[in-house]
Amino acid sequence: ICDFVCPTKETKQNFDPDITIWMNTIESGRYEDTNKMFEEPLEADYRITEMNDENHRIISEEILKNV
Predict the structure, then answer these.
(1) Contact at 8 Å (CB) between 11 and 4?
(2) How does pLDDT run across 2-16, given as a tens digit for each residue?
(3) How crowded is residue 15: how many other Cβ atoms within 10 Å of its Cβ?
(4) What's the pLDDT tens digit per position in 17-52?
(5) Among 18, 13, 64, 2, which residue's Cα sits nearest to residue 42?
(6) What Rg do the C-alpha atoms of the chain give, in angstroms?
(7) Which residues touch 40 (CB under 8 Å, ≥6 apart)?
């Protein structure tokens, strides 16, 4: 399991994850240089757009169905 704050396309390609969970719960971060380099992923297996107490349970159950 790895966590990237703002991975570039090249980072994602080099890492080559089996599963991608994209968590996008804010409009912009507090660091402008990071905001400038932000690239929305073209593909993600799961997308989280709001913080709540259920996301982890829902996604883990979905992942386990497909293992």
Answers:
(1) yes
(2) 888 888 888 888 988
(3) 11
(4) 888 999 888 888 899 998 898 888 888 999 998 889
(5) 13
(6) 13
(7) 24
